[in-house]
Amino acid sequence: MKNLPRAVWVGSFLAIFFIQVFFAMQTKSPTCDEFAHHTASGFSHLVTGDFRMNPAAPPLPRLLSAIPLYLMGVKAPLDHRSWKDGNSPVFAQQFFYQPHFTQDRLIFWARLPILILAVFFGYFVFVWADELFGITGGLSALALYTFCPDILAHSGLATSDISVAFFFYLTFWRFWKYLRKQSLKNLILTGIMAGLAFLSKFSAILIFPILFLIVSFSGSWKKISLGRSTGFLAICFLTVWAGYFFEMKPLLKNTPDPPKKVALYRKIGGERLVRFANEVPVPLSTFVSAFASMMVTRARGTNAFLMGEWSNGLKGWWYYYFIAFAIKNTIPFLLLILLSLVWIQKIPTNRLAKYFLVLPIGFFFLATLADKAQAGIRYFLPVYPLFFILCGGWMAWVWRKKKFFRFLVVTLLSWHVFEGVRIYPDYLAYFNELIGGPDRGYLYLRDSNIDWGQDLKGVADWAKKENDPELVVGSISPVDLEKAYGVPWRPFTPQEQKKPRPCVYAIGVHGIDGTSWFRQYRPVKIIGHSMWIYDFRKK
Predict the structure, then answer these.
(1) Whole-model pTM over 0.85
(2) CB 71 within 8 Å of CB 458
């Protein structure tokens, strides 16, 4: 490492990361969230300044994805009724299947800004690890980032998960700098990063209790004056408001599903609050309204899946994210985490840095124990860089002080790299050997953990090679194979859910239980570990 400039090492890792995701994302069709919720909605935000279209997520990553589309001359279907109604899935159909632009071209350019953001993410993972542990710790953390299947998967998607993880991480890094040097620059940058995290995803609300815990455990209250705290919150607020183009409007104006929101406001504050929501313009009204809806959704729960059981919104599993983390990450990464925690006292840094690395991780796991809206390991991406840096610190200690065990570091890192390379390009469907690999992942987790509709392009490619047989598709994705890829298809009939006909079936594993016969026959092809192909044509 001493023989090459650090810029060469870092640049090489980031180039490898970029190349992996750049080519992998071109093999995948839009996921259901990219198609129905993010890309078209974000483009409408950019060209109109109106956030009515699917405001359930904040706009920053959507706006980033929309920039290249705007520069290409893409048009938003604002004359279609779906715009007036705020119907984002129908609006997305009009957007993706407009003349002059193919679906693949639109989604490629929408994904590219997120990939670029992920490259910067990797760079700053190296920066903080290097500041704490030197070049060995920095490059070790960067290597873990570069070949982590979960990071690779979401870095090639036009969604919000990489963005919120990145700005979550930068908030912690800048606040660490602030506690070491209480400068106005560090205060302002911490507030801006927190604001950008809120502009990425509502889960950024966890930043506040985590910062509170860090200050409490580290005994840093003397460094946090009332004036500085107020300044931090004001900067955070202004950043979020700027991201909504300094919006001022009543809470119920241009918002989807007004009756649902009226009922919520009436329950909270009666008719007086309903009148206020109808008549009085307020800053960040879209943000406030969407955040309230999100809290209701999380309280009611979603239909999650774990080890053969669906929650149906009635319950959650306190151990959901423990299991998801244990089977969605490489075994060598898990071993490195275990070794780092066992020998955390040996990691060469001060107590404050260890609080920053460990407390957010612990809080994330504790905060999800009672969660009933368990939507996948992607919600844990904000703490992944902290794991990378913690492991980088342990590896730096071993490299300097325990030279006899250097082979262990090399072995675990090489194994991790091998796992990341081997799963290409199917990063989203990665599962480790503890459960038998990705083809068995559907038995444990569903949705964005394995099948988000990303492999319909692979289904279309297979069908073309088979001379376009009669194709029946069951998928979570709203992508239209005929409009997108020129492959005729149709959905399942109720009868076919019980008994197959002499044609070809492509079934996504997210909803594969709805087909009663899928275990009775062997699929002729499994595409991307998420789509099962059954061929019942007469030979």
Answers:
(1) yes
(2) no
